Amino acid sequence: MASFEVEGGLSLKGEIVPQGAKNEALQIISAVLLTSEKVTIHNIPDILDVNNLIDLLAGMGVKVNRIDRQTCEFQADDVDINYLRREEFKTKSGHLRGSVMFAGPMLARWKKAFIPKPGGDKIGRRRLDTHILGFEKLGAEFTYFPEDGFFYFTTEGLKGTYMLLDEPSVTGTANIIMAAVMAEGTTTIYNAACEPYIQQLCLMLNSMGAKISGIASNMLSIQGVEVLHGTEHRMLPDMIEIGSFIGLAAMTQSELTIKDVRADMLGVIPDRFRQLGIQLSITGDDIHIPAQDVYEIETYMDGGVLTMYDHPWPGLTPDLLSIILVVATQARGSLLVHQKMFESRLFFVDKLIDMGARIILCDPHRATVIGLGRHHRLRGISMTSPDIRAGVSLLIAAMSADGKSTIQNIEQIDRGYQNIDKRLNALGASIRRL
Ligand SMILES: CC(=O)N[C@H]1[C@@H](OP(=O)(O)OP(=O)(O)OC[C@H]2O[C@@H](n3ccc(=O)[nH]c3=O)[C@H](O)[C@@H]2O)O[C@H](CO)[C@@H](O)[C@@H]1O
Ligand SMILES: C=C(OP(=O)(O)O)C(=O)O
Fold first, then answer.
1. Smallest Cα–Cα separation from 262: which of 290, 234, 289?
2. What residues bind phosphoenolpyruvate, as annotated (predicted)?
3. Is the dihedral of CA 365, 371, 376, 377 positive or negative?
4. For ligand 2, is residue 165 a contact (CB within 6 Å)?
């Protein structure tokens, strides 16, 4: 298990370019299975989850030509789908969430699919019902093998239909879209997720010949086509990384410019950080955060304590709540963080409390932060990263703290943040990989 040793109390200065979006990459790379022609993808993040997904495709016989670390050509013209029944696939796919999204393309192209027990963050119950109910509506049948949590789907041919999703699941919506693009007739998906990841997937599929309308809304209409073709696609910058850098700048009193953020695709993210009192200015596609000694959390208009809660897009993504929580610990004022979607994502606050933060964990979903207003600095400690976003939040806390901290289990951070230690050290941080 690798660790980071972090020297706290240093301010950073300079420019940073966000990586390509992890959660978009997992969808887009799964979609290469939908055509036998070549698909070229740009701005791929060089992170564990994505590299593992690419390895799984290579294991199935997809031709993978890595032009450089960010650009890759894929061609799924000779695929061994039985690879997905093998132990090797089951073990490897257990390391990431994205592998569930092979199922939609497989059903569309080969009329059978497998979903192994997926990996990803252990942040609470992560059900797959939306995926499975959607496939059933399209005409697939499944067998579940409880001994290893494996689903096996078959179909005589998917048929377009109307469906109202039981919840706007991000990976579920992506999976159903990919299944429906080559189904017979028209599929309408209501209560669809519409995160930028999904919008990008739909745009890429349309450029391959799919007929999807309603993109960016929660009602998608998909007219099935017989075949999809090759294409080129560029990933958006990772909005969660962008949010993490905004929080990092505020906590460490750093002056940072985050370059090429695609500001039009960030939704409420900049405003949520502004509500924490963080000054940021957006010029074109760059976000500038000045070094700030003090930032003060807003209250509601009637003076009530501000609440930040997650919500499907265009609400605030749950993936930024841990970062928002950590940033609030050094603000002036109070914040209630309400993590509605996941029930195990706030437990990492015990480490922040050990560092000297004032936080009340009200229940598994809610934590109240009483900002220290920089009157007391956090102190460095030794801790373990429980999940990807808590991991980065602890890294930010450690960078702002007095003294040295050690963060174990940084594989969790490497799942989603590309060379984070090197990139932050280039701006003045002191993070050593042990
Ligand atoms: C690889 C990938 O893309 N992972 C993202 C994806 O995971 P993923 O697609 O697995 O998450 P889902 O969108 O399915 O939902 C996550 C959890 O939230 C619950 N839920 C969902 C919708 C809702 O309106 N109410 C609700 O309570 C679900 O029951 C589920 O337990 O979306 C999550 C929610 O944005 C993000 O945290 C993950 O980073
Ligand atoms: C929860 C996350 O990832 P995953 O769904 O891959 O576990 C995340 O990106 O914050």
1. 234
2. 22-23
3. positive
4. no
CATH topology of domain 22-234: UDP-n-acetylglucosamine1-carboxyvinyl-transferase; Chain (3.65.10)
- Ligand 2 centroid–CA 195 distance in Å is 14
pLDDT band at 122 (very low <50, low <70, confident <90, very high): confident
Q: Which two tokens mark 175?
A: 């999976």
- Tokens 């940072």 belong to residue: 256
Helix (H, G, I), strand (E, B) or coil at 288: strand
Closest residue by Cα to atom 25, ligand 1, is: 341
Tokens of residue 376, six digits: 């007391």
Centre of ligand 2 from the C-alpha of residue 300, in Å? 30
- First vs last Cα of the chain: how many Å apart? 9
Tell me the residue ranges of DSSP E strands in 259-330. 281-283, 286-289, 306-309
Answer yes or no: same fold for 3-19+237-433 and 22-234: yes
If you measure from the C-alpha of residue 327 to the centroid of ligand 2, how many angstroms do you get, rounded to a whole number?
20
> What local confidence, expressed as pLDDT, does residue 232 receive?
98
Query: Rounded CA gap, 411 and 306, in Å?
Result: 33
Helical ranges in 103-169 per DSSP H: 103-110, 129-137
User: How confident is the model over 413-434, as a mean pLDDT?
Assistant: 97
Q: Which CATH architecture has domain 3-19+237-433?
A: Alpha-beta prism (3.65)
Q: What atom of ligand 1 comes closest to residue 124's alpha carbon? A: 31
pLDDT tens, 40-89?
999 999 999 999 999 999 999 999 999 999 999 999 999 998 888 888 88
Please give the single-letter amino acid code of residue 235.
Answer: M
Instruction: Enter the pTM of the model.
Output: 0.97
- Give the active site residue among 121, 238, 387, 414: 121
Domains of the chain by residue range: 3-19+237-433, 22-234
Ligand 2 pocket test target in 23, 122, 170 with most atoms within 8 Å of CB: 23
Ligand nearest to the CA of 30: 1
121 annotated active-site = yes
C-alpha to C-alpha distance for 338 and 316, rounded to whole angstroms: 11
**Rounded to 10 degrees, what is the CA torsion of 124, 128, 133, 139?**
180
- Of ligand 1's atoms, which has the minimum distance to the CA of residue 96? 1
Probe residue for ligand 1, chosen from 28, 164, 167 as the CB with the greatest number of ligand atoms within 8 Å: 167
Q: Label residues 196-216 b or e (16+ Cβ within 10 Å = b).
A: bbbbbbbbbbbebbbebebbe
